[in-house]
Amino acid sequence: MIELRQLYKTFVLGDQPVKALDTINLSIGVGEYISVMGPSGSGKSTLLNMIGLLDRPDSGSYTFESAETTTMSEPQRAELRSQRMGFVFQAYHLIPRLSARENIELPMVLARVPSAERQRRSQEVMERLGIADRSHHLPKQLSGGQRQRVALARAIICKPALLLADEPTGNLDSHSGAEVVALLEELNRDGITLLVVTHDADLGARARRQLKMLDGRIDRDLTPGLAPAQPPE
Amino acid sequence: MNLLDKLLFCWRSVSRTRLRSVMLLLAMAIGVCSVVMLTSLGEGARNYVMSEFAFLGKDVLVMFPGRNETTGGLPPVTGAAARNITLTETLRLQRAVPAILKVAPVIIGSTLVSHGERGREVIVLGTTGAFPDIRQMTLDQGRNLHLDPGHKDNECLVGSTLLQELLPNRPAIGQLLRVADYRCRVVGVLSGRGDAFGMDLSDSVLVSISLAQQLFNTDSLFRVLLQVNTQQPLAETRKRIEEEMARLHQNELDVTIVSPDAMLATFDQILTIMTLAVGGIGAISLLVAGVLVMNLTIINTSQRTPEIGLLKALGAAEQTVLQLILWEAALLALAGALAGLLASALLLAAANALWPSFPMQPPLWAVVAATATAVLAALLFAWVPARRASRLSPIHALYRR
User: Fold this and answer.
1) What pTM did the predictor assign?
2) What pLDDT score was predicted for residue B77?
3) How far apart are alpha carbons B34 and A88 in whole angstroms?
4) Which residues of chain B lie closer than 8 angstroms to A154, CB-CB?
């Protein structure tokens, strides 16, 4: 599903170039459940943004579902994001003046899904995530757990193939966090490919495949239950 | 994203950030309102002047001595002519050109008019009975002057204001007034104001032409009003008059003939330009409103940078983001313009109720232009910040690096 080859990305911090991604080679198959861990500045968020087509690498190749993305135009990448990917952010990134339902329907609005279909699908997803009774509330009227579930509903409303979660439990108490994680894993069992970036070792350890990043490189690629995979050369 | 969804999205953004929207609305409303009010004022002035001059019927030509060869502007009000127009010439002219129905010669000057102890320096208009006829003036009392310019009796018509000054609460008809060194009998009283050549005739006397000739010691006429038969083409009659006057003046055309239409057209032109000018001044406030739109759009887009990043992450194309921001500015500007039109309509209704003699109405072009300028200015000024925002990379916008 995803093939990263010799991916580089450098940021300039002050006058110091920082290698955010350094020679990344990574293959991800359909339906995998992967966690990405590592200290701050190790490049794990950059990796997630790169896979999510939010950022472009300096060099290297990234094929998503056999299509080379680095040469795509911005509208093509936007289309791919809209159709195949869902994002969950630590800070939820809900639009404050839109109600829960309006936030959830936003990706469908952008994708020109007809209004009746939007209603039906958002209702279905809200019921599944247990926020149907909050549909008319504004984000500020919701608890953190509820907000993240709204964000999750928005991420999966267009039935993406890949779900990218950046510290999905970072702002939540342990109880709400566990609920959100349960939902993410349930979605993964239904076939969605899940990639979670986290600091939380407990959350990271739940994934079937665990990547550890250090200084822009994939330091370890573990698949517990199987023999440890060889680190990429 | 289809149009309805875009508008809905903008509407939510507008309606749920009330202070910003109200400020922008207000700026646009003031701009549009000022354009409409100023042009209404100009248009009102134009209509007022036009109606003030409308007393000169379409069948009246005004002839005066002197000729301005470079036509196009207003004719000289006081022309120092090579040759005068005399009373005798007007009589010959009337005989020679049958299309002329009435001739009112006019000599004008000012002198002391008194009755007993009371005296007043006023404008004295020497003419015949044809003048009040042509001008369709009405008399409160008495009769008109004699129509025959050769009539030698010293008689006069008194304006209503002057009458109050000289003969308060006394029967006027038959009284003798002293006009400079001459005695003159009051035969009638003019009613109302009766403007002529922009003068208020209520504070003046109309005397027989023969008296005026003696008073001002002149044969030369200041103006001649000619009422012509409109059954015949005006241009042809005018040409005939010019020919006849040239013949009387040794084949030299040294008089100017003005039709009221030409005078009105000139006034119309001047006042339309004035309306445009004040409209332009009003448009400056629209420009200022446009700058405000730019500032608010910059603030808006920078405050909503994460949102723009989110929209892009959710699959919004650059074009969509750009359109959303522009739509919002355009909608606000349009709403502001409509509010401004409403406000100006109310203000004009109030003004017209207060001063009914000076009716003000906005010209249609001003209403359309003001609204269009408001929306265009908003779009133009929102364009730069909108474009900048729409080009942000999603990742930078999301995390505000």
Assistant:
1) 0.67
2) 53
3) 50
4) 314
